[in-house]
Design a protein that fits this description.
This protein has a seven-stranded parallel β-sheet with strand order 3-2-1-4-5-6-7, with helices on both faces. Helix 1 crosses helix 8 and helix 4 runs parallel beside helix 5. The chain has about 250 residues and is α/β, with parallel strands linked by helices. It starts with 7 loop residues before the first strand and ends in a 7-residue tail after the last strand. Helix 1 links the parallel strand 1 and strand 2. The chain has one domain: Rossmann fold (3-Layer(aba) Sandwich). It is built from eight helices and seven strands; from the N terminus they run E-H-E-H-E-H-E-H-E-H-E-H-H-H-E. Bound molecules: nicotinamide-adenine-dinucleotide (NAD).
């Protein structure tokens, strides 16, 4: 089960953090992987990791907020590998700022990457997936996406973008079911990546995580990648438009 041999995948924001482990996990299951991010040199390093483990991958520079770049890169990936079957919409920014201090530019930056970027990639990828009547789109949101009881200071734009992903996914799932394209969301809890480590979440918040999470620890990126692999596989064939939280039990508290 969960074999991805012969499948072509693309991961956004894959130079580090969860995007990197998603790329490694997809490759380990046999998928060819397009490793994409805003920093090409860093993507090349992930490609080398995949290749040295016996997998197949190639790197592209891709800023998901640019429709022109999305169109060009997805066209090139499909051209090089023959199709596109799996898209992991992982790229994201946090940019915490109190709502009263948030500029229009701050707001647009977060929404453009986190929400518009996922839409642009999904729309372009779907045009490739339709050709084979088979596709898997996995959108990465967060437990901080509305309706979960998690609201954190400074996260207004972030939560708006992540909540938007869930609404968008449900709609795309119903529109694209007829083309064999399944679209789902993963909402991670607190996961140990540079996004959290670079100090955007202060130490007090990190301490609270260890108190509030029943499993009493921050998650590892690989613990989200295993869910990505499942949703990318043939075995997820009756699942679309759903949101899966992987949070160590945080929302169950
Ligand atoms: N770490 C957590 O606790 C956590 C929790 C919930 C959700 N998430 C989400 O998981 C995803 C991965 O985040 P992470 O924790 O690995 O953080 P990260 O900061 O390590 O990774 C995010 C990646 O997105 C890339 N990126 C930023 N802007 C981009 C753009 N315009 N185009 C393409 N790529 C761009 C970055 O270069 C980076 O490689 C994000 O969507 C994030 O919101 C993270």
């Amino acid at each position: 089960m969960f074999k991805l041999d012969g499948k072509i995948s693309l991961v956004t924001g894959a130079r580090r953090g969860m995007g990197r482990t998603h790329a490694l996990a997809l490759a380990k299951q046999g998928a060819k992987v397009a490793v994409t991010d805003i920093d090409l040199a860093e993507c090349e390093k992930v490609v080398e990791e995949i290749k040295s483990a016996g997998g197949e991958a190639a790197a592209w520079k891709l800023d998901v907020s640019s429709a022109a770049e999305v169109d060009k890169v997805i066209g090139e990936v499909a051209g090089r590998f023959g199709s596109l079957d799996i898209l992991v919409n992982n790229a994201g920014v946090l940019n915490l700022k109190p709502a009263l201090e948030m500029s229009e530019e701050d707001w647009d930056k977060v929404l453009n990457v986190n929400l518009k970027g996922q839409f642009l990639c999904a729309q372009r990828a779907a045009k490739e997936m339709m050709k084979n009547k088979w596709g898997r789109i996995i959108n990465i949101a967060s437990i901080a996406s509305g309706g979960t009881g998690i609201g954190f200071a400074g996260g207004t734009a972030y939560a708006a973008s992540k909540g938007g992903i869930i609404g968008m996914t449900e709609t795309l799932a119903s529109e694209w079911a007829e083309y064999g394209i399944l679209v789902n969301v993963i909402g991670p809890g607190a996961i140990d990546t540079p996004m959290v480590r670079v100090g955007e979440l202060n130490p007090e918040v990190s301490k609270e995580i260890s108190v509030r999470v029943p499993l009493k620890r921050i998650g590892r990126p690989e613990e989200i990648s295993s869910l990505v692999v499942y949703l990318a596989s043939e075995e997820s064939s009756y699942i679309t438009g759903s949101t899966f939280y992987a949070d160590g039990g945080w929302l169950a508290q």
